Automatic annotation (TrEMBL):
<feature type="domain" description="Solute-binding protein family 3/N-terminal">
    <location>
        <begin position="53"/>
        <end position="273"/>
    </location>
</feature>
<protein>
    <submittedName>
        <fullName>Glutamine ABC transporter substrate-binding protein</fullName>
    </submittedName>
</protein>
<keyword id="KW-0732">Signal</keyword>
<dbReference type="GO" id="GO:0030313">
    <property type="term" value="C:cell envelope"/>
</dbReference>
<dbReference type="InterPro" id="IPR001320">
    <property type="entry name" value="Iontro_rcpt_C"/>
</dbReference>
<dbReference type="Pfam" id="PF00497">
    <property type="entry name" value="SBP_bac_3"/>
</dbReference>
<dbReference type="InterPro" id="IPR001638">
    <property type="entry name" value="Solute-binding_3/MltF_N"/>
</dbReference>
<keyword id="KW-0564">Palmitate</keyword>
<dbReference type="GO" id="GO:0016020">
    <property type="term" value="C:membrane"/>
</dbReference>
<dbReference type="InterPro" id="IPR018313">
    <property type="entry name" value="SBP_3_CS"/>
</dbReference>
<keyword id="KW-0449">Lipoprotein</keyword>
<comment type="similarity">
    <text>Belongs to the bacterial solute-binding protein 3 family.</text>
</comment>
<feature type="domain" description="Ionotropic glutamate receptor C-terminal">
    <location>
        <begin position="53"/>
        <end position="272"/>
    </location>
</feature>
<feature type="region of interest" description="Disordered">
    <location>
        <begin position="29"/>
        <end position="52"/>
    </location>
</feature>
<dbReference type="InterPro" id="IPR044132">
    <property type="entry name" value="PBP2_GlnH"/>
</dbReference>
<dbReference type="GO" id="GO:0015276">
    <property type="term" value="F:ligand-gated monoatomic ion channel activity"/>
</dbReference>
Amino acid sequence: MGIKKRSLWGILLLTLMFMLAACGGGGSESTGGGSDSSDKESESSGDSGLKDTYTVASDTSFVPFEFKEDGEYVGFDIDLINAIADEVGFEIKLETTNFDGIIPGLQTGSFDIAIAGITITDERKKTVDFSDPYYDAGLRIGVSVDNSDINGIEDLKGKTIATRLGSTSADYIKKNIEGAEASQFEQLDQAYLAVENGSADAILYDSPNVAYYIQTKGEDSLKMVGELYQAEQYGIAFAKGQDELVSKVNEALATLKENNKYDEIYEKWFGEKPE
């Protein structure tokens, strides 16, 4: 009888061990499943490691790229960055500032992105990252309609030349035009006004802006002379360390060019499709 009892207890013990092993195995699978799910969530987060909203800095008076009209900021750059944001899938918080404050703002983290007709240069690449180029430009000269002395860059030697503060054109004047004084203004309207009132001999600035101003506000007071100087390309600027965002923006820009949305925006603001 003692042997039978011991056998019975042995069977019960073995049964209990099997039951515990089965439960333990089930717990392991469950934990493994939880880990897989967590890993997937992490991957998903990593694949779309972009923020929902980005602070985008822009200029205040660079027609037709960005300017205020009827209380809202409009222009080629504004439409383009909104189209890119829609394509990538993020919202924009637009901040406007003077042009010379844009790159410092990116460096300090006040802005994530900037679009403001910013010329891509090696010097600027040291402090910010750039997208692929989105606009080809250069420098043009504007003078008073009755000025017959200035017909090209060589005639600007020793002259007072209006331009924008912190722009590549200001650097160009200092480095390439002998004896010229770069009279720099925060607001472009002030630069054009300086030529119109005679306090500056000419304006040297980005070709699309000079052309647009002379075709509109300055139609009766200014004219363009000379050729297109120093070919330049505009890029969207980013605070450093946002490689994934830069890549996604470049992909979106390429898509907009492929599906003709870029052409539509370009034609809206420049009256013709890009070459």
